[in-house]
Amino acid sequence: MCYRQSSWLWLLGWLAVVCQQVPAADPAFTWKATQIFKAPEAHQAAAADEHFLYAITNDRIAKYDRNTGQRLAISTGGAQHLNSGFRWRGKLYCAHSNYPLVPEKSEIMSLDPDTMRLETFKAFGNYGGSLTWAVRHEGYWWCNFARYGAQNSQTFLVKFDSEWNEKARWTYPQEVVRELGRNSLSGGIWRAGALCVTGHDDPILFRLKLPGSGTVLEFLDQQIIPFTGQGFSSDPVSGGLVGIHRGRKEIILAEPLEAPTAHELR
Question: What is the residue range of 36's domain?
């Protein structure tokens, strides 16, 4: 057996084991890690721009050189429970809450990469859940307010206009909720017309779409990713994803890996 064939057979065998553990996962489209950087702050999320990587932990954000992996700066400004972040108009915007305190208090914080100062961008107060991710897409803000434990099926997505008027809200389908245990959704982005979200611990990316009617998002599929859930973002350089492995304190850059064709296995 040639080395190439053996390698592909090993990969397919590994995918088969993972897919048995995660029902309904699509083994025909997965993601591979292309670069891995050590970052002690890689606890909640990661983000990237053309020059830097950002590791996000509860109370601060670290900026790393994406070529050398060297840590360049640490944020200043008070924070308690930062979550997923994304780049928009030259700044990094992060979901922030007072989780696990009640009553819940959520806001979006902004980070200026030049000064590394964290400031409140939009305060929601008690909006009915803990904000875990927020992104800008097609002129709207999309914000996820998480519920936990026996109430995690009540986690909801809100669409706001530029003046922060709520335009619509949705909950998540059972195909997603049943995989979360007592946790909730930690990351979300829009990609290729689909809403892509991640949970708290598992290397799974859920792909959803807005329903034609009703208030429950529609499940498309789920894909295997090389990072363990949590907050993630798009990589503007590779067009792939940026995530973290919380246990190993790593920032992981990922790109899609198509499964081999029958011809490639010969």
Answer: 3-265
